[in-house]
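Q: What would this complex look like in 3D?
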Amino acid sequence: MDESIAKPSIREGNERAILAAAESVFAEHGFGGATMAAIAARAGVPKPNIHYYFPTKQRLYRAVVERVLTAWLDAAGSFDTSADASEALTTYIGAKMDLAREMPLSSQIWASEIMRGAPVIQDFLDTTLTQWVRSRERVVRKWIAEGKLRPIEPKFLFYMIWATTQHYANAAHEIASLENGRPLDDEAFERAKRQIVETILSGVAAS
Amino acid sequence: MDESIAKPSIREGNERAILAAAESVFAEHGFGGATMAAIAARAGVPKPNIHYYFPTKQRLYRAVVERVLTAWLDAAGSFDTSADASEALTTYIGAKMDLAREMPLSSQIWASEIMRGAPVIQDFLDTTLTQWVRSRERVVRKWIAEGKLRPIEPKFLFYMIWATTQHYANAAHEIASLENGRPLDDEAFERAKRQIVETILSGVAAS
DNA sequence: TATAGATTTGACCAAACGGTCAAATGCCGC
DNA sequence: GCGGCATTTGACCGTTTGGTCAAATCTATA
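A: Here is my prediction, written as structure tokens for the whole assembly.
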């Protein structure tokens, strides 16, 4: 919320370490299954130290979820950079795939939060996300009117992109199990990205 | 496991009611966040009655997850019914979409279980699911060899189908928030299903 | 180095948790 | 209606949980 004087670097460092530990524990066990003791252990600090920086479990969870939101919005920004439909979609899908690969925990926490009915980020869904979708729907409809895309419903396209990209974070364990227990390496991941882009582009491009 | 004499209908009824309550509580709060007291309340029985039928929380959870597995396999079966690529994919995607609509809780529990690293269904991933994927990969490769599909990697196609269809269950709340808080009605859901089928078919069909 | 504020931590607490138990009740063939 | 078994349930238990507190320690500035 407030970073008024922006001085205490020790505070910043500790908060970062605690948030990182909390992120992984929340992602692995969900909000209800996570314990402050486990978070403290993973952060390498005594439990009361966490309460010194984050008064309650809910506040700590909120702080984690808000970081996830930031990452999401950064990736969302990449939709604007181009006026060309294919290029915009390619960039956007690529950005979401990279996000899933680099920050899988964020994606998992997002998914958990949504599945629980978004108790913490409901207002974000109703405001920022709704506006984001509305404005991008307009862009997609323009592309359709220009004959670039088939007459699809934009929202269902977004859902497909979100679902598919986030799947590579949320279901990383399932994917690894189907690959002899080894997670996708960088090369395989790039092939997946390319195939997703090509499939969706071919799928929605005007015939 | 065993239904030897298949007589006691009162037991069956109670187990069903408890499983249904457990399914919804586990889906909403995750394994760690769910409490036996909440499950008992939702089932309308005293807490010790649950332990009478399911000795521990983990066993109850296992029983719920095993039901989810059954639903998943039923939908999986619809992949075989046709030798034609388009028809098989259409049927399969439709079946998975219907499953997401009719049993959203199952899908959510599945997603939670996967995100936690599949502590309960790991063996299923390594055996049944791996075999299912291997055999269907062969079918898809055959279609590619016959020139029906573009030279894609079958697994990435399955991931896209699983992700997209399950998204309509897992993210139902997010979708509702983007539709003025109202869940998709039957008509909108059918439009979504049709668009997904058309997008994926166009996306993977040989050009 | 004196001191005020920030930070750390072991010990502790009330509440909630999963699970137990024995007594009470219901059910059904005889 | 009796006897044996399945089922129900209020009361209870040890442990774990989120959270507190006051004393101890560190840090920075003058």
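A: To summarize the key features: Residues 10, 35-37, 47-48, 51, 55-57 of chain A lie near DNA strand D (CB under 10 Å from a C1'). Chain A has a mean pLDDT of 93.
Q: Very helpful, thank you.
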